[in-house]
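User: Could you write out the 3D structure of this protein bound to PRP? I've included everything you need below.
Assistant: Certainly. Input first, then the structure.
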Amino acid sequence: MPLTSFQQPTEPEGFLKKELFITKEAIRERVVALASRISADYQGKEPVMVGVLNGVVIFFADLVREISIPVKMDFIRAASYGSRMDSCGSVTFTKDVELSIEGQDLILVEDIVDTGLTLARILEKLGERAPRSIRTCALIDKQERRSVSISIDYCGFTVEEGFIVGYGLDCREAYRQLPDIYILR
Ligand code: PRP
């Protein structure tokens, strides 16, 4: 049955205007390039790709399908409390990785790195389980509020500032399903 009756959901009241920022074509190009680098760098290995829920799901699903080597997949979910503006903000884990990662090559996959606190805490937590290596991959490295130093090994886009939604990124849970990325102004 054709999906002719499909409509985008109405935008929640009171939200700012959204302005197209990164097109789905540009996203696709970077996803393919990142997947190609990961495939080359891990040739002969089978890394464990760990996605940080929830925002990562769309990027993660697109990325892994472009990777040409075998990978394992798992997910972790972090919740932040307190201020994200400094390193005092605390991060707790509401869903842990379930695969054994000891001796494995890990690639942590994020949709966006903002203050860097979430990724820093996950690196610390998973690092304690003696993986063979850990690298990081983020679709967007947003730098204006960075409060901890984080190295992103595979980065899709570097963005200086702005509230970004779409392609998994939300504003109060809205906009995640949009295929392009927008800035709210
Ligand atoms: C977002 C994003 C990262 C984190 C980055 O997740 O997906 O995990 O924030 O922020 P930070 O660098 O300041 O720690 P969020 O907690 O909003 O949950 P979501 O993925 O469900 O949107």
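The helical segments are 24-41, 57-66, 117-127.
User: Perfect, thank you.
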